[in-house]
Amino acid sequence: MKTTKIFADRNLTVGQVQPTLYGSFLEHLGRAVYEGIYEPGHPTADENGFRGDVLELIQELNVPIVRYPGGNFVSGYDWRDGIGPKDKRPVRLDLAWHTTEPNEFGTDEFLKWCKKAGVVPMMAVNLGTGTVKDAAQLVEYCNHAGGTALSDLRRANGAEEPYRVAYWCLGNEMDGHWQIGHLTADEYGRKAFEAAKVMRWTNGETDREAPNGRLKLIVSGSSNHEMPTFPEWDRIVLEHTYEQVDYLSMHRYYEYAPQSRRPLEDFFGAADDMKRYIDTMRATIEYVRAKVRSARKVRISFDEWNIWTQSAPRREPLWKKAPHLLEDVYTFRDALVFAGLMNTLLNSCDVVHIGCLAQLVNVIAPIMTEKGGGVFRQTTFYPFRYLSNSARGETVRTFSDSDTFENVYGEGRYINEAVNYDRKTGTVVVSLCNYAQEQREVELELRSFGKLKATEYVEMTSADLDAVNGFGIERVVPQERELPSVKEGSRVMLTLPPMSWSFLKFTA
Ligand code: AHR
Question: Integer distance in angstroms from the first to the last C-alpha of the chain?
Answer without folding.
Answer: 31
